[in-house]
Amino acid sequence: MGKVLTVGGIQQKIRAAYDDGVKEILLPADNFKETLELPSYIFVTIKLIPMQIVDEVLRHALVGVASK
C-alpha cells in the first residue's frame, strides 16, 4: 500500500545513530511521538523527519544520491 509502518525500539535506534554521528533520520510518522522522550541534546544534533508514504522516503533519500 506504500505506507511507512512503525518499527520497534525507535529510541534505541536514534541513540545509536547519534553515537555514530548521523545528522538526519527518516522515521515512520507513527513513531515520532516516542522520540519526544529522548534527551534534548539529540534533537539539537539530529534532524528527525517523519515519513508516512514510501514515495516520500524514496524522494528524500534519493535527492542526496542524485546530487553526488
Task: Please render the helix and strand layout as text.
Elements: H1 10-19, E1 24-28, H2 32-35, H3 40-45, E2 47-51, H4 54-66
Parallel strand pairs: 1-2
> For the largest beta sheet, what order do the strands appear in spatially?
1-2
Mean pLDDT: 91
- Indicate the overall shape: globular
Distance between the termini: 30 Å
Rg: 12 Å
Major beta sheet, specifics? 2 strands, parallel
State the order of secondary-structure elements, H for helix, E for strand.
Answer: HEHHEH
Portion of residues in beta strands equals 5-15%
| Secondary-structure content class | alpha+beta
Number of domains: 1
Would you mind describing this structure in some detail?
The protein is an alpha+beta fold. It has one domain (10-66). It contains four helices and two strands, in the order αβααβα. It has a two-stranded parallel sheet. The chain starts with 9 loop residues before the first helix and ends with a helix.
Brief rundown of the structure:
This protein has 4 helices and 2 strands, in the order H-E-H-H-E-H. With 68 residues, the chain is of the alpha+beta class.
